[in-house]
Amino acid sequence: MVKKGKTTSKRYRFKGRIWIEGEGGTFLGYGRVVLLERIKKYESIAGATRSIGMSYRHAWDLVKSMNSQSEKPLVTAFTGGRRGGGARLTPDGEKAIKLFWKFYEDFRNFLQKEEMKFRI
Amino acid sequence: MVKKGKTTSKRYRFKGRIWIEGEGGTFLGYGRVVLLERIKKYESIAGATRSIGMSYRHAWDLVKSMNSQSEKPLVTAFTGGRRGGGARLTPDGEKAIKLFWKFYEDFRNFLQKEEMKFRI
Q: Fewer CB within 10 Å: C terminus or N terminus of chain B?
């Protein structure tokens, strides 16, 4: 059987990595956004870190970095409740997640489109 | 003076890195394409590496990697001439440079467009 018209989009894969920088370096990236999602889910930084195997100290540094670079914080502490408090996303935190995944999706579409155009 | 309407496109910078993978890992990336351009300019791998401070061995590995992953080689050796030979780009080598820079430029435009949309 003769294989005809093998497309180069199969031969080559277009790859990339994206992130958003603020005044103090990285502001949002894949790992940070996953951390935000877990904080939302567990309502706690400790719970979030346990679920992704990240050190509490590192997670705390990332949250501080995001909070200090955005106009309003993305994560806030709350007290009270059954477990005596925790951490929650602010509306801007929720927005950051949505906007980043949109950026990410647009990027994947961009790569796919570019890959289709590539002929060598 | 009151500064009004500060855009977030100034607050945040959208960043990224792109490359093209073949069957054996990376096929084309920023550094590889610059190497191809220098080979074209100096008609020699040794000359190219001197101009960018890369070891000959590393450059040779990159050329082998690119040649083996493309349908036809991107770089070929030639003999003769004043200096007794050297290396030249093939038509596909020339095409690879052009296509990669187009991809790169499209990516920069993509990032700029995404950055303008971002409001947090």
A: N
Is residue A89 within 8 Å of residue A47, measured between CB atoms?
A: no
CA-to-CA distance for A112 and B96, rounded, in angstroms? 18
Q: What is the pTM of this model?
A: 0.86
Plot region of B77 (φ>0 → left; ψ -120 to 50 → alpha; else → beta): beta
- CATH classification number, B30-117, choose in 1.10.10.10, 3.30.413.10, 1.10.390.10, 3.40.1390.20: 1.10.10.10
The architecture that CATH gives domain A21-117 is Orthogonal Bundle (1.10)
Indicate whether B2 pLDDT > 60. no
Q: A17 in contact with B at a CB cutoff of 8 Å?
A: yes
What is the token pair recorded at B25? 């890992």
Single-letter code of the amino acid located at B3 = K
The DSSP element (H or E) to which A46 belongs, if any, is: helix A45-52
Look at B15 and A19 and tell me if their CB atoms are within 8 Å.
Answer: yes
Question: How large is the angle between the packed helices A56-69 and A45-52, nearest 10 degrees?
Answer: 120
| Confidence at residue B83, expressed as pLDDT on a 0 to 100 scale | 75
Nearest CA in chain A to B109: A110
Q: Give the model confidence (pLDDT) of A70-118 as tens digits.
A: 999 999 998 887 777 899 999 999 999 999 999 999 999 999 999 998 8
Nearest Cα of chain A lies from the Cα of B16 at a distance, in angstroms, of 4
